[in-house]
Structure formats: structure tokens, C-alpha cells
Amino acid sequence: MAPIKRLNPNLNETGQRILAVLLLLLPLVLLYGLAIAPYLKILADNRERIEDLRFQLQRLQRTAAKAPLWEGRLQALQQDPAARRHYLQGATPALASAELQKRLGEIVRAAGGELTSTQVLGTKEEDGFTQISVRARFTASSRQLQEILQEIEANPPYLLIERLTVRPVRGRRDPKTRQFIPLDKLNVDLTVYGYMKTEPS
After folding, report:
1. 111 touches 136 (CB < 8 A)
2. Can you spell out the DSSP letters for 31-51?
3. In this structure, what DSSP letter does residue 35 have?
4. What's the CA gap between 35 and 38, in Å, rounded?
5. Are 187 and 169 in contact (CB under 8 A)?
6. Any idea what DSSP says for residue 198?
């Protein structure tokens, strides 16, 4: 026991053994804190990112599969003068853009989401129509986001989703148990566009 006693002559034998064990564990604790814990955090962040990308991929695949449907609807609109309710309404593109911003805000709030901002991205002339694009940023749960997307696609005026980015909101750590509590809350960045009938001049 001579090597242990040299640790500190003022400690009894039990204290010296405890100190020796602590000294043996110290490198492991440092290794975990400096190398293993950051690596585990990177893995957790990567898993969140993978889930985010998988969700977006599935959404884009479903949207792409509906492309023939939307093309058919657009052709029907071009051929049916009575189908004005499917167009964005407004005397000018600026008024139609404002109406689209209002419509998106109403959809988000009706589903229980929290609208952060909306932004008109511009207009484009296309075969007798003016395409109007609006970007909306909001937070919502996964269920609320599903309701929002369904409402956008299901009811007139016809709106198409051009871009959808979803990022999960990081959870919080319980101050008592120190356990990580995940949140069912998403940051959503959504761009949609619709068509306004261009009146002949």
C-alpha cells in the first residue's frame, strides 16, 4: 500500500483508495467530455437533419406526382371562363398578391400555427395568366403543418407549392431531471404560387 499512501499522508487507507479510483476515472471523464459527448451530439443533430430531409423528400415526391393533375386544372381554367373562383382575384397583380398573403395567413392561423412573416416574391406572365408567388414563414406542429398543406391544395383558388423547407425546433432540457424533452414544433419556410387571369388590353 506504500504507493497509495504517498498520494496524501493525511488520508486514511479508505480515503486513499477512493482518491486512487477517482484519479483512474478522471481520464475517462475527460475523454467523454472532450470527445465522446460532442460526437454523440453530432450524431443526434445528423439524425434530426436526416429526418428533416426525408420529410421534405416525401413531400416533394407527392407534389411531383400531382404535376399532371395541376397541368390539367390549368388547362381547364384556360378553357372555362366561368371558373374565375379558381384564380387569384384582384384588379392588379399587387392587389392579388395582397389577397394571397392574406389567404396564407388565414390558413396558418386557422390550423393553429404561428405566422412569422409573408413576402411577395414577384410576378411572371405565363400564357394569358400572371403567376404570383408568395413566401410564408411560420411555426407549427407536424399535425398542424399537414392541415395547412391540405388546405392550400384542396380549396380554391388553386395554389401550388413551389418550395418547402421544414426544420424541427430543438427541444429543451428538464432543469430537474436533466432529461432532453423533444418538441413537436417545426419552423416552416413555404413558397406557394397561384395564377391571376390576365385581362386582354
Report:
1. no
2. HIIIIIHHHHHHHHHHHHHHH
3. I
4. 6
5. yes
6. P
What does the pLDDT look like over 133-165, one tens digit per residue? 999 999 999 889 989 998 988 887 888 888 899
Burial grade of 113 (CB within 10 A; 0-12, 13-18, 19 or more): buried
Helices 67-79, 37-65: crossing angle, 10 deg rounding: 40
> What's the pLDDT tens digit per position in 81-121?
555 667 888 888 899 999 999 999 999 999 999 999 999 99
d(Cα 157, Cα 162) in Å, to the nearest integer?
15
> Which DSSP helix (H) or strand (E) runs through 166?
strand 159-168
- Residue 36 and residue 82: Cα distance in Å, rounded? 66
**Within 13 A of 108's CA, how many CA atoms are on the CB side?**
23
| One-letter amino acid for residue 50 of the chain | I
Which of 123, 146, 144 is CA-nearest to residue 197?
123
What length is written for the chain?
201
